[in-house]
Amino acid sequence: MRTRILVAVLAVALLLAGCSSGGTRDDGRITLRFQSLAWQQESVEANRELVEEWNAGHPDVRVEYVQGSWDSVHDQLLTSFEGGEAPDIIHDASDDLADFAYGGHLADLTELLPERLTSDIPSRSWQTVTFKDRVYGVPFLQEPRVLIANATWLKKSGVRVPTPEHPWSWAEFRQVTKRLSGDGKYGVAWPLKEPVSATLNLSLSAGGRLFHRDADGKVTVRFEEGDEVVPRTVHAQANTDRSASPTTLGSGGSDTLPGFFAGKYAMVPLGFSYRQQIVQQAPKGFDWQVLPAPAGAGGLTQGVSPQTLSVAEDCPHKKEAVAFLDFLLQPENMVRLALGDWMLPTGRQALADPALRTAEHGWATGTALADRLRPAPAQTVRGYPEWKDKVATPALQEYYSGAIGLDELRARLEEDGNLVLARYQR
After folding, report:
1. Nearest-angstrom CA–CA distance, 197 and 274
2. Region entry Disordered: which residue ranges (predicted)?
3. What is the per-residue pLDDT across 125-135, written as a single tens digit (0 to 9) for each?
4. What is the rounded distance in angstroms from the CA atom of residue 223 to the CA atom of residue 406?
5. pTM above 0.85?
């Protein structure tokens, strides 16, 4: 009986060891678990190929590819951190890192990262993963928001077509969409099912900040003049000018594409990576082009939350995990990842690659915007996920639909929002 009990205990111990984050096998080989959120076929293939190439060249440090999902990553990571089962290498987005970093779940990479990597990625990108002067991830992919336009429609209308050198202002953009509308068609379709990120990041072009940090580090929400420009433009297009389709305000980006292809909307503001879906789904002969988003007092500046790679604090082999990151983000590999995700790399060397500067599919327009990308306003704000879900999302959705006015929007973002953020700053 005592022998059977001992065998059972050993079996349970081995099972738990197999579920833990990372480890060393009896033969001395290290195993690291890499959770990737790649979802497009080209991106998944690129990530898997790079893992295989690493494993072929590093027999003593094996990386296991684990498929994650953007839809559930925050809650999944929170559960895995609390349960001690987090992957060693974590793919996420920079605006999701603050609570994990402050909570002690992510490793401080400040002294572990190679100089090659830290010097190749601009300081503005490192700001998105820096909390209390410590680095908790590597920002490696980013995407500006752009206007995807029906090129034939724009040409026939005779409107001035914007370029990164001569973009539309927000006021001009509103007038253009009015000119393009009529007979049941709309100049623009705003997909604002998730309105917060788009609104905040585009508002940087108009000088908006929304989140203000005092000398003590406390963050408060103030909805000021620059923060009003983008919401007021969208509200006017949807409710006054009738130049924005009201039915797409509650839709996701992909939901607008059938109507775009059918000629219901002249333009759709989307993330740069949506170009892949357009290439795959557009009917034969459909002529489209990529335009820069409108500019305001801040020019073409807009906020981004880059995709990131972090290492779990519980990972027992942090140096080896960082060595894998260094391999994964070599310039030529960063280009492969960018092409697979149809996004822009953060690294300067990768961004200079000719494959990312061709006019085909609007790559050149995207790379022209790279220098104007800045950390998203909410990047280091603790409590942002709750503020976004419970306060900002419903308030913006009601404002854009015309259910509430600008003063009510301001009150809810500031008063209700500051109550939420205060709980995280005590």
Report:
1. 16
2. 232-253
3. 999 999 989 99
4. 10
5. yes
